[in-house]
Amino acid sequence: MTTWLRDETTPYDIFRFLRNPDEERHQAARVTDCGAAWLASAAAGQPGAALARWRERPGSAAVLPCGTVFDVVNVEPIFGRRMLDRLWAEGPGCGPVAVHRGRMLLFAAPGTAQRLPSLLDWEEWGEAVPRPLCHGTGDAVTVPPLAPREGDTSAPRWVVAPDTRSPWLPGPEVLLWACVRAARAVSAADVRVSIFPSADPDANVYDVSRRR
Asked: For residues 119 and 174, is the Cβ–Cβ distance under 8 A?
């Protein structure tokens, strides 16, 4: 698979706003007007009604159908964070990302929900990937409120909020690449390399610290 090279000399830290309670954090987690219009365009032919509801209750979540404007890849949060690390450190970045009920939701290009599981079945590292839940045509997902709820960590929230009318969305090949890279990183972390041979369990061991 192709490795993308980013132009920045300093690695981009997608999680900096989770550590620093400053204005940048609130901006990253807040949907812009253009981002809200994009989300509302998925509302089954009634984007105007969806926008009106959000204007009245900007702190409320919404349920939107998948399959036309976006698909959603639903992964466990630790593995999802590793995927985002790879996407931003070595890849093309990510689309909108949310957290809901202890899972990470990666918004993807339509068609990803159908294609990604098949690609994982063919990939040799597929068994090492925690199986994602893929939401596509016929499915619906809960999207977080337009603005973050202060102090409510259990509510759905944006990690990367949509901010344009046409956000870039990763396709199945990009997310497969991220899954494989994340799985390889976990595998490499589990390997312990030593320059010394393994100790013989039957060998005699003497305490030489007191020898004169």
From this structure: no
Q: For 81-130, write each residue's pLDDT tens digit.
A: 999 999 999 999 999 999 999 999 999 999 999 999 999 998 887 888 99
Token pair 């209750």 is found at 57
Are residues 86 and 181 in contact, defined by beta-carbon separation less than 8 angstroms?
Answer: yes
Q: Distances from the Cα of 166 to the Cαs of 13, 21, 41, 163, 184, in angstroms? A: 23, 28, 11, 9, 32
Note if the pTM is more than 0.85: no
Residue 168: count of CB within 10 angstroms of its CB? 12
Report the C-alpha gap between 33 and 165 in whole angstroms: 9
What is the greatest pairwise CA distance in the chain?
A: 87
The DSSP secondary-structure symbol of 126 reads G
Cβ atoms of residues 159 and 29 within 8 Å: yes
Instruction: Please write the tens of the pLDDT for every residue from 13-52.
Output: 444 433 443 434 445 678 999 999 999 999 877 888 888 8
Q: Residue 212 is which amino acid?
A: R
Q: Residue for token digits 């939107």?
A: 64
